[in-house]
Structure formats: C-alpha cells, structure tokens
Design a protein that fits this description.
The complex is a heterodimer of chains A (about 270) and B (about 325). By secondary structure, chain A is of the alpha/beta class. Chain A has two domains: about 1-95 and about 185-270, 3-Layer(aba) Sandwich (Rossmann fold); about 110-185, no CATH class. Chain A has helices spanning about 60-65, 90-95, 110-115, 125-130, 135-155, 170-185, 200-215, 230-235, 250-255, 260-265, and strands spanning about 5-10, 15, 20-30, 30-45, 45-50, 75-80, 80, 95-100, 190, 220-225, 235-240, 245-250. Chain A has a six-stranded mixed sheet, with helices on both faces. In chain A, strands 4-3-6-7 form a four-stranded antiparallel sheet, covered by helices on one side. Chain A has a two-stranded antiparallel sheet with strand order 1-2. Chain A is globular and about 65 Å long. By secondary structure, chain B is mostly helical. Chain B has helices at about 5-35, 45-60, 65-70, 85-105, 115-140, 155-160, 175-200, 200-210, 210-215, 220-250, 255-270, 275-300, 305-320. Chain B has one domain (about 25-260). Classes of the chains: A alpha/beta (about 270), B mainly alpha (about 325).
C-alpha cells in the first residue's frame, strides 16, 4: 500500500507515483509551532485527506502547499522537483488550485466571470495583443469559455451562470468556488473544508462532486475536513494531525483503528 | 423661451463640461483605490508631471538639464528638435508606465499589508517627491501646451442656437476646448470599461479589486496588476493634464486639481467608476448653477471655490458611502 508502484483501486481508478512530497515541514508563528516536522506524500490520482481536531494545523499545512505560508524547515517536492519558496500566484501557475474554508470568491462578479478567472493561467495572449489583435484574443476567450461551460454543466450550475456571486446562498458559493478551481485544470486540487457549514443534503452533493471530479478528470485531490465520517467514505489515504503533529497516516481503515487517533478525537484521560 | 431660461441651460451645459474634467481626475483616484485600497494623494501631481513631460518632450528639452550642466559644466538646454504631438504623447505614456513600475517596485512592494493611513502617507511623500522630480527634470517656468487643440467659443454653436430665444439671446457660448475634453473623456471611459470587461487583464484587475486572496489563488500576480492600475491612472492623469494644461497653462498649481477631485469622490464613492463620472457632472453643474442663480446675485460671487466642498459635506452627513459606493455595513 505504501509502496511507490502504481496500482489500481478497488473501484478501478489508476493511482500513479508521488505527485507531491512534503518532507519534514515545520511552521512557526512567533514561538508557536503550528506544524511540527511533518512528512507525507500525495500520489497521482488519489484523494488524500488531512484530518484532525480544530487547531491541529490542517489549514496551515494547506497554506504551506499553496504558498500562502512559508515553512521555517522542511522541503516541498512537486512532480519530482524541489520547489523553491514561491508566492501563491506562482504556485497556482504550477497547476495547484485551491478553495478556501471561508470561501474567497469575487463577490461583485458573475458566476461565469468568477469561473473564467480560473482560466487565467491558461490564457497566454499578452496585454498589447489583447488590446490590438482582437481576433486572437477572441479565439482564446472562446476556447476557454468552452472549458468553463463544460465545468458549469458538470457541477450543475447552469441556472446561475449570470448571477452575481454575492447573491448566492452558501452551498452554491462553495460549488462555484470548486468550479473556479477546476477551471484551472489543476494537477493538484486543494480543498479546505469543502463541506464546512453545509447541511446533510449539500454534503452529499459535494461528496458526489468530489468523487466525480477525481473519477472523470483523474484530478489528484487533497482535502481537509474535521468531519471524520465524510472523509472516511471519500478518501484513499488519510493523514491525521493533532496539535501540529502527525499522529496517523494510512487507509481509512488503518487510521480508524489507530489508538492515538481515537484518543485525539474522543479525548483521553490524562494521568 | 425666455432668454434667462436659455442662459440657465447654457450654464448647465458648461457645468457638465467642467464636470468632465473633475471626473477625469477623480477617475485616476478610483482606479488605484479600487484595486489596492490606496488613496493616491499624488494623482494631481501625476497630472502635472505628465503635462510637464509632454511639453518638455515636444519642445525637445533636455531632461535634468540644470543638474547636468551643474555637474559637468556644460551648457545644454535643448536637443534642437521638435517632437510631433502624437509621438510625444506616446513617449509620455511610456514615462508614466515606467513611473508606475518604479512606484510599485520601490515603494508599495515594501508596504504590503500596512495600514491604509501608512499607504496614504506614502502617497503624500510620493506627491512631493514627484513634484520635485518634475521641477528638476523640466524646470519650473509656466509653459503653454501647444497641441493645436481648438480653443475659444464655438461660433457654429452660437449661430445655430441664436434663433432659440428672443432679441436678448445671442446663442450658447460653449468653449471648443471643453467640447474636445468631453469627447476625449468619453472615449477614455469607454476604453477603460471595455478593457475591464473584455480583456483577461481587465478581468484580473476586477478580480484583484474584489478579493486579493482569491486573486492570488487563481494565479494573478498582485504587483503586476498594481503596476497596471498605476499605469492606467498615469494615462488618465496625462489626459487630465493635457486638458487642464491647455486651458490654463502647464504650471505647478496644476497639481491642486487633485483637491477638486475630493468632493467628486465624496459624491460618487471611492470605488465606483460611473460614480466618479456622475459625481464630476453633479459638482460641475451644481457649482455653476449655484453661482448663476444664488452666488453671483446674492452672495457676491466666487462661490465656485467652496460650493463643491459644502455639497460634499452634506453628502458625508447623509450618505457617507457616496451615490454609488459600496454600503458600509459592520456586523457585530
């Protein structure tokens, strides 16, 4: 299971080699260690979850991967190369897209425009060419629109295409944010608590979309959740964090039976 | 129609056109404020600097001539050529873009995440620095901007409209320069709106204006967008500098037009491009009409100096977010 050899999952999905490798990551805010010497990898085609109680350092880890935080120690390897310290927009251009726990959408723009911003990394026409050579810019816009329309169909949000995002309910905003991340056709998709604040029905919808994205596009997904039930059904492998440390790593079954994980979630009497 | 009424209309038309110039300056403020939250006090000086640069290039003046002469003991002032207006405008645009890059690279890159008041103070410093650079580069004498723009009252409009009233009415007096300015401003605004709506850089610009974090996550470089908006603000400043400079000569008091843009922003809201335009119009018409109906007959005139600020004050009390600005709602 932990080998690097490619394998095929029970439901027929192809899992490849290591896509992202986090080695000995340590992140401090002042004197507080948010992440303590954590290593784990994400393999191509898998759904990898990072779970843990509140304040475990999950979001910090996601922010390290997406370049919003820079660790004091440790190395980030992506596609077999050591990644130098990068700004978030440079990470995005590498093909790592993300969503945010508190939703970061462009509230004043339409759903379509929001999702189109996800295509920016794929649009190559320069500023002058955009202004002068209308034809080329237009052709590029049309090609990118097609990709976006497919994603809109896929996530079943056709009805709200032209609606300003600010007017949408919470659940739909989450879906639009997923659509924008997908529009980048990322090699790695990071989801920060995709199910937070949702009701049961919305959670089921979101789970279905995550599985479908992984299945149909073969997108590698790393997601954070603190709802253990959801994660166990969804993911191939799980990292468990508690107080900035890694306390478990493996298949959902392995993690579920790990005594340290059970203690962290249910609490344990201190001696 | 009575002559008085027609003269009233003339006042409104002239007010609209003056308003366009106010709006042009306000527009520069809005562009930068929307994208970066920086209230750019230097916008007026940028208009002055752009106009100075344009005149200097057109006249073939050697930049920093005084400094060069003092250091090397030479005596040069002019290259001895004249640059055609179109080429000179193009070169000035390049200078404004270089300025935008320098501002981002040397100042605001180091101030990311600072309090708005710090950023504001930085722009005050920038304003005086730029004024000094303009002085050093091109000298401090008053210049005329000879772009060949039409000036003076339009005879054609006067003749076409003279038949509207009775014997007391001689037709509308409308300055040709104001007409040109209005036209140019309309083209500029249409261009900016098209740019923001239909190009990928425009979309990225709107994205940054909306949410920095989200913009970063889709691969937009904030500093690139900030250079872009400062460049656009520089171009807007150039246009404003040309229009004001053609009207009253290129001199250092030109930088004070920034103060005239403040009430426009209070009215229109700091984050709205249509707001800047409508705000400019209201101020322009308002102050002319007030002067014509109340100021001149009852208050001894010269009310144009303060009317705009008073109107802005009234707005601040009753609608602090302006006509089009985003409503400020603080949830507890």
């Amino acid at each position: 299971m932990d080998g690097v050899a490619p394998y095929v999952t029970a439901d027929g999905r192809q899992i490849g080699g290591v896509l992202m490798d986090m080695r000995g990551i340590t992140l401090r805010f002042g004197g507080v260690e948010a992440i303590k010497n954590i290593s784990f990898d994400i393999r191509e085609g898998e759904i990898r979850a990072i779970i843990g109680p509140n304040g475990a350092g999950k979001s910090s880890m996601l922010n390290v991967i997406s370049g919003f935080y820079h660790p004091q120690d440790g190395e980030v390897w992506f596609r077999g190369e050591k990644r130098p310290p990068m700004k978030p927009y440079q990470v995005a251009r590498l093909g790592i897209a993300r969503t945010f726990q508190n939703i970061a959408l462009f509230e004043g723009m339409s759903v379509l425009d929001n999702i189109m911003t996800g295509r920016l990394t794929h649009m190559k026409t320069g500023l002058l060419a955009q202004a002068i050579w209308k034809g080329k810019a237009e052709a590029e816009e049309v090609a990118n629109r097609e990709v976006v329309e497919k994603i809109i169909d896929f996530l079943e949000i056709q009805a709200i295409r032209k609606t300003p995002v600010g007017r949408l309910p919470y659940g739909l905003k989450k879906r639009v944010e997923l659509a924008r991340a997908l529009a980048a056709e990322p090699k790695l998709l990071l989801l920060d608590e995709p199910m937070a604040g949702m009701n049961v029905e919305e959670k089921e919808d979101m789970s279905r979309f995550i599985l479908d994205v992984n299945d149909e596009f073969g997108t590698t997904i790393a997601l954070i959740e603190h709802d253990m039930g959801v994660v166990m059904d969804l993911s191939d492998r799980v990292v468990v964090m508690d107080y900035g440390r890694k306390i478990g790593d493996g298949t959902p079954d392995e993690v579920r039976n790990n005594q340290e994980v059970i203690d962290a979630y249910l609490g344990v009497a201190h001696e | 129609m009575s002559a008085d009424f027609l003269y009233g209309i003339e006042v409104v038309i002239n007010g609209l056109m003056a308003g366009v110039l106010y709006a042009l300056v306000a527009l520069g403020f809005v562009l930068i404020f929307k994208a970066s939250g920086i209230f750019n006090f230097a916008q007026g000086v940028m208009a002055l600097f752009a106009a100075l640069t344009l005149v200097g290039i057109m006249e073939g003046q050697v930049p920093f001539a005084h400094l060069i002469n003092a250091v090397f003991g030479t005596n040069i002032h002019h290259f001895g050529w004249q640059v055609p207006a179109i080429l000179a405008i193009f070169m000035t645009v390049l200078v404004m873009i270089a300025f935008a890059w320098a501002v981002q690279h040397f100042v605001f890159r180091h101030l990311v995440g600072q309090e708005p008041i710090i950023l504001f103070m930085a722009t005050i410093g920038l304003a005086y620095f730029l004024e000094g650079v303009g002085d050093l580069m091109w000298g401090s004498s008053i210049r005329t901007l000879a772009l060949g723009l039409p000036q003076g009252g339009s005879l054609w409009v006067e003749e076409m409209t003279s038949g509207l009233g009775g014997d007391d009415f001689y037709g509308f007096f409308i300055d040709k320069l104001d007409m040109v300015a209005t036209l140019v401003a309309l083209v500029l605004v249409a261009g900016l709106v098209a740019f923001a709506q239909y190009t990928k850089q425009g979309r990225a610009m709107r994205a940054v204006a909306d949410d920095h974090q989200a913009a970063l996550s889709v691969g937009i470089s904030l500093s690139y967008i900030w250079v872009l908006v400062w460049s656009l603000a520089g171009i807007v400043a150039l246009v404003a500098g040309i229009m004001w400079g053609a009207k009253s000569g290129v001199q250092f008091s030109l930088s004070l037009i920034a103060l005239k843009a403040l009430p426009v922003l209070m009215l229109g809201g700091f984050t709205s491009i249509p707001g800047a335009i409508v705000g400019g119009m209201i101020i322009g018409v308002g102050e002319k009409l007030f002067e014509y109906t109340i100021g001149a007959p009852y208050l001894g005139g010269a009310t144009e100096n303060w009317f705009a600020y008073m109107l802005a004050l009234v707005f601040l009390v009753f609608r602090p977010q302006g006509l089009f600005g985003e409503r400020i709602i603080e949830r507890v």
